[in-house]
Amino acid sequence: MYIIVLNIKRSIKYLKSNLYLLFFVLSLGLHAQKDTIYADENDFPISKEIFNKKLSAPIYYGLRFDTDTLVLQKIKLRYDFGEITPNIKHQLFKLLNKRHQIDTTKTLVIHYQDTLKAISEFPKQSKVVYYDSLDNEIKTLNKVTRNPYGMKIDLSNYKKVVKHKRIQSYKSFLYWNKKCNKSYKKYDKTAAILHFYNFNTGHPNVVNNLTWYQDYGSLLKKLFFQDKKNFYTVIIKPSGAFYLEHYESYFTSHDLLNPEKWNTIKADFDKRTKH
Predict the structure, then answer these.
(1) Are 7 and 60 in the same domain?
(2) I need a surface site. Which of 3, 89, 215, 229 has the fewest CB within 10 A?
(3) DSSP structural state of residue 232
(4) Quick check: 194 and 109 in contact, CB under 8 A?
């Protein structure tokens, strides 16, 4: 019940901030043919100067959304630090231990994916897929047309690319999971590397020495990954302190398993996000 209420409060807060931004954008759209709007990590409008200042900090990255009449530039956090409340920590750790026999006295490094695909759903070859600002796949980056004088190459689709995603073959998927587990072997006494999924379309939970864990009741997703669909990382200490990765950072999970580096990185984050 506590988790449900917590998530409702988060959703209401998120909805309010996005409505505020929407009204601001629409009001400007009525008075200009083309304009650029800047928004902070909480979806509130900011000046271009503040946007550029934030973007220069290592804890942020930017997103750009283009329409026919408007450009929206948003600041997003690369990562976040927080603390699970004692009540939620007790529920989470009890579930992880009871369902999966996970030792919660260790620091948990959780790699989370929303869907663990069946083996048959993986492509035979790895590939890169490109997306525009509306999350539509751009299937052709360069259009080539022939004419009596030769060829014409249209590269306009390159300008529409705002992100890309590597789609792994099954062979590559297994390789990187094995490599990941091996890289954390030296932390066996103090940390556990865990691969979790929300949905499974037919993949076995164990393949050789690799194990994938089901997120029962979507508890981890509700706590950390509500609006996320791809692959993400959360590191949870036995105390309930956690690090949540939203985007590629300038340090690794290995750095955060060093208590001194954890404290340094967190102190810098707190200083930069203090209002």
Answers:
(1) yes
(2) 229
(3) E
(4) yes
Cβ contacts of 50 within 8 Å, gap of 6 or more: 38, 40
- For 25, the domain range is 2-77
Q: Is 15 exposed, middle or buried (0-12, 13-18, 19+ CB in 10 A)?
A: exposed
For residue 263, give both structure tokens. Answer: 């404290």
CA 128 to CA 137: how far, in whole Å? 11
The type of residue at 101 is Q
Q: Centre a 10 Å sphere on the Cβ of residue 182 and count the other Cβ atoms it contains.
A: 11
User: E strands of the chain, at which residues?
Assistant: 35-39, 45-46, 60-66, 70-77, 79-83, 107-116, 127-131, 137-138, 143-147, 150-154, 163-167, 191-200, 206-207, 210-211, 213-214, 231-236, 241-245
pLDDT for 70: 84
Residues 6+ apart with CB under 8 A from 123: 167, 168, 169
Name the least confident of 3-7, 95-99, 139-143, 178-182: 3-7
Q: Are 161 and 269 in a shared domain?
A: no
Condensed to tens digits (0 to 9), the pLDDT of residues 166-196 reads 788 999 999 999 999 999 999 999 999 999 9
One-letter amino acid at 137 equals E
* Amino acid letter for position 180: C
- Going by C-alpha positions, the residue among 133, 136, 149 that lies closest to residue 64 is 133
Pair of tokens at residue 247: 């985007």
**Residues 66 and 142 grouped into a single domain:** no
Rounded to an integer, what distance in angstroms lies between the CA atom of residue 62 and that of residue 52? 9
| C-alpha separations of 25 from 22, 72, 161, 165, 258 in Å | 5, 9, 23, 29, 44
